[in-house]
Amino acid sequence: MVPEEATGAFVPAWDRARYHLEGVGSLYVHVPFCRSKCAYCDFASGATRADDPLPAAYARAIARQLREVEETGLFEPCRTGYLGGGTPSLLGAALPPLVRAVAPHAPTELSFEANPDSLSPDLLERVREAGATRVSIGVQSTSASELVALGRIHGPERALEALREAVTSGLRVSCDLMCAIPRQTGASWERSLRNVLASGVSHVSVYPLAIEEGTAFWRRYGEEEPEFNASDVQADRMEAAEATLTRSGLRRYEVASYAVPGQECLHNVSYWTGTPYLGFGTSAASMLTREGYLALRGVAPQLPAPGDDVARARVTVMSTARQIVADPALGSLRLSVEFLDLRQAVAEDLMLSARLAAGIPGGLLGLAREAAPASQVDAVVSRACDEGLATLEGGRLVPTHSGWLMGNELYGELWGLAEGTIDTRTC
Ligand code: SF4
């Protein structure tokens, strides 16, 4: 369940009940198909031919898995859904039935990701009718030469047209932009920000390019930090984005996420506020309480029994798309499981919560002081404040400007409160 406060001032309440929720607050479906592979992308996705029957069969297999979980009661508190990828819009006619299968479990918000080249007014209308409330469009840049450098297959005109079509469709619209990329200048970044704002979107996510191992960019640039991606360039671009987006009435509510107040992505907020979720499809991850995990074991008996000290389980689907289509039964999936004790789960939640501009609520800090020695928690809080990464405001630990830009240092401090190794199994 998405905390109600999350829709207002983003001050989610924390309580012990979150660690014992028997169901999930949100559900995610991973769609691993793309028209071609972008040069920087390390997501679980692959280029798919237009006439390949696999995507439609995959969508049907996931809908079947949803029905299987319905019987467990895990979906009862579920409020938000998200179809991500890959490129969910590439499913075309197979997308509306999949959205229809998710919609009963996402009464508050149901998002899907799209790329400009596979989105049309007709698809937007059919997906909206099926129950989607929000679309997130991968634009990345509105400079033709930057898009070519990224290996994107759409041009700037089509990207901006897709944004306008989405806004007209009545869905809430978000778009992704990427900074610190080849050929980008301060001026071209500013133009990309202004162009997407002019289209009427109410949400923008801004990411610095990460050069990940195994990608074409890694082979090209992995040896040394290229100038366009230097950490000071990243910081400059992120600061410029904040200034421009804030001037246009959007508010930064998370490290990389800006929204017109009231248009925040509640699904993503539920991740950052430690709400359990279920993930479907290849490489999708779930996060469950001990109680939720035991309920999932009812339909996936290959999952190992949790030890007595397990408070949280993270489950990842290891089966490929083809394996899921060949046998969608949850009991046949190959899975990997990570078991966390309460102290590790709370440390993880501290780290995730520090991504929010509103910071870590006092209630969660209080739970941390019970799960780990209070003196250690207090020492981490003091260090974060002394290093200028965070400040205490009314009992909350709120990231400062430096804490926002150097998030990994702050998250590292908080994750340091976890003790021991995480118990990992495959089944
Ligand atoms: S469209 Fe998105 S998921 Fe697909 S290859 Fe490009 S970046 Fe990766």
Automatic annotation (TrEMBL):
Q: Which UniProt keywords apply?
A: Chaperone, Heme, Iron, Iron-sulfur, Metal-binding, S-adenosyl-L-methionine
Matching InterPro entries, A to Z? Aldolase_TIM, Coproporphyrinogen-III_oxidase, Elp3/MiaA/NifB-like_rSAM, HemW-like, rSAM, rSAM_sf
**SMART domains (alphabetical):** Elp3
Q: Which GO terms describe its biological process?
A: porphyrin-containing compound biosynthetic process
Q: Which residues form the Radical SAM core domain?
A: 19-251
Q: Which GO terms describe its cellular component?
A: cytoplasm
Gene Ontology MF, one: metal ion binding
Sorted alphabetically, which Gene3D superfamilies does this protein's record hold? Aldolase class I
Q: Which domain of life is it from?
A: Bacteria
Annotated family: Belongs to the anaerobic coproporphyrinogen-III oxidase family. HemW subfamily.
Q: Which PANTHER family match?
A: COPROPORPHYRINIGEN III OXIDASE (PTHR13932), RADICAL S-ADENOSYL METHIONINE DOMAIN-CONTAINING PROTEIN 1, MITOCHONDRIAL (PTHR13932:SF5)
Q: What protein is this chain from?
A: Heme chaperone HemW
Q: Which organism is it from?
A: Olsenella porci
